[in-house]
Amino acid sequence: MAALDLLARRWTLHIIWELHEEPLGFRPLQQRCDGMSSSVLRQRLLELIEAGLAQQTPDGRYTLTELGQDAREALDPLSAWSSRWAATMRPTM
Question: What is the pTM of this model?
Fold first, then answer.
């Protein structure tokens, strides 16, 4: 339940999604998160670091840990399902 609580927090999945391809600095990550407030981003990053899913590199960028990459990969089936679900929700023309 603790993992679900962490992942259900607003913006957490978006941050994980953005970090899965490459390390990002704070500002670039904030821009990719559609202008999320800096205080919320800072809080979510701290939570992900404390949970062992993210880390800060020596040059100040953020990246997923191996465990964080595993979490992101575990979400692939949900992502595939959500695409199928979204397709059923589109109005037919």
Answer: 0.86
86: how many CB neighbours lie within 10 A of its CB?
Answer: 9
pLDDT at 92: 58
Residue with tokens 């970090």: 19
Q: How far apart are CA 91 and CA 60, in angstroms?
A: 45
Q: What angle do CA 9, 15, 19 make, to 5 degrees?
A: 150
- pLDDT at position 26 is 97
Largest CA distance in the chain: 52
DSSP secondary structure letters along the chain:
-HHHHHHHSTTHHHHHHHHTTS-B-HHHHHHHTTT--HHHHHHHHHHHHHTTSEEE-TTS-EEE-HHHHHHHHHTHHHHHHHHHHHHHHSPP-
Would you say 79 and 44 are in contact if contact means Cβ atoms under 8 Å apart?
no
